[in-house]
Design a protein that fits this description.
- The chain has 219 residues and is α+β, with helices and mostly antiparallel strands.
- The chain has 2 domains: 139 residues, Jelly Rolls, CATH 2.60.120; 72 residues, Winged helix-like DNA-binding domain superfamily/Winged helix DNA-binding domain (Arc Repressor Mutant, subunit A).
- It is built from 9 helices and 11 strands.
- The strands form 3 sheets. A 4-stranded antiparallel sheet has the order 1-8-3-6.
- A hairpin with a 5-residue loop joins β4 and β5.
- α6 crosses α8, α6 packs across α9 and α7 crosses α8.
- The protein is elongated.
């Protein structure tokens, strides 16, 4: 059983009463993953959704020749794996831990019953899907209007957040998948930032020297 407070903090469930929250908490379980562990693979038949409580989970698409594209990065507080709850389809991506991670696994069955009993709660689901569509619009716009260097700058800033000192939680290949380019082109972009004096790099640790220029390059 998961602590009631952990379910209560999930944005999708913020309108639930205590009885409903307790029902979900009693049906849920905690999952721990090591770096590289696979939570599910594309076309798996799903039975539950997940909430990240620690670590990072990558949603990965794989091409026929084995290349990977990281279509989404799930961090603490993020919910994922909910689409099959509503469309009945199989998993559309792989889910893989980029570092040691912990998740709450919530079965579909009690959620289906909850939405059948309280259909007004589905407005919160509509809100979630709308946010996902807006995020996808942003990704598509980046792929059209930003070159590899611009997308690399944007991903590094997203990983850094408000911190100027940060380390990459992903490999070079995984970062390239997030950018949507080859590892060589992403490394070349990072090398250009170092040469320009915008960032400093030591192994997988980075220091942002000129955030303004990085932000300008990411637009």
């Amino acid at each position: 059983m998961v602590d009631l407070e952990q379910i209560q903090t999930v944005e999708l469930f913020r309108d639930l009463d205590e009885t409903s929250l307790r029902t979900l908490a009693e049906a849920s379980s905690l999952r721990k993953l090591g770096r590289g562990d696979v939570l599910f693979t594309e076309n798996d038949q799903p039975t539950e959704l997940y909430v990240v409580t620690a670590g990072r989970i990558a949603m990965v698409n794989r091409s026929i020749d084995g290349r990977e594209s990281v279509v989404a990065l799930m961090e603490p507080g993020d919910l994922f794996g909910e689409m099959p709850l509503f469309d009945g389809q199989n998993r559309s991506t792989d889910g893989r831990a980029l570092e040691a991670s912990e998740l709450i696994a919530i079965p579909y069955a009690p959620l289906r019953q909850l939405y059948a009993d309280q259909p007004d709660l589905l407005w919160r689901v509509v809100e979630l899907f709308s946010l996902r569509l807006r995020a996808m619009d942003g990704v598509l716009a980046d792929s059209v209007f930003l070159d590899v260097t611009g997308r690399t700058a944007k991903r590094l800033l997203e990983i850094a957040g408000d911190q100027d000192d940060f380390s990459l939680p992903v490999t070079q290949e995984e970062l390239a998948g997030m950018v949507g380019a080859s590892r060589e082109r992403v490394n070349k972009a990072i090398a250009s930032f170092v040469k320009l004096g915008w960032i400093e790099q030591r192994d997988r640790r980075y220091h942002i020297v000129d955030r303004q220029q990085m932000e300008l390059r990411s637009r």
